[in-house]
Amino acid sequence: MSAEEPLFRVVRGVPTADELAALVGAIVVRSRPAAAPAPVTTSVWARSARPTVAAPSAGPGAWRASGLPR
Questions:
Q1: Can you give 9-70 as a three-state secondary structure string?
Q2: CA-CA distance, 38 to 35, in Å (whole number)?
Q3: Do residues 24 and 15 lie in contact, with contact meaning Cβ atoms separated by under 8 Å?
Q4: What pLDDT score does 22 carry?
Q5: Matching InterPro entries, A to Z (predicted)?
Q6: How far apart are CA 52 and CA 55, in angstroms?
Q7: DSSP category for residue 7
Q8: Inter-CA distances, 37 with 34, 54, 56, Å
Q9: What is the pLDDT of residues 41-58, one digit of tens each?
Q10: How far lies 53's CA from each of 1, 18, 20, 70, in Å?
Q11: Cys-Cys link to 56, which of 10, 17, 34, 65 (CB 3.0-4.6 A)?
């Protein structure tokens, strides 16, 4: 492809300058590689509501341990 050759051409119809600009914009956006999604981060506030230690298991003393601070 030479520098004089157009990247695309309209084969039917007579598009306005605005229509051509929209077409070029759409082609440019579609030709870019997709961006990687941002990593999901959890806020400190949300993490504070989650228990850091597993819940007490059933067994002797479990009822008493369920009410004690961890």
A1: CCCCCCCCHHHHHHHHHHHHHHHCCCCCCCCCCCCHHHHHCCCCCCCCCCCCCHHHHHCCCC
A2: 9
A3: no
A4: 93
A5: ACC_epsilon
A6: 9
A7: S
A8: 9, 31, 37
A9: 888 888 777 766 666 677
A10: 65, 61, 61, 8
A11: 65
CA distance 53 to 12: 68
**Below-70 pLDDT ranges, the chain:** 1-2, 51-56, 69-70
- Rounded distance, CA 14 to CA 26, Å? 18
Residue whose pair of structure tokens reads 């084969």 in the numeric block: 11
Give phi and psi for 39, each to the nearest 5: -65, 145
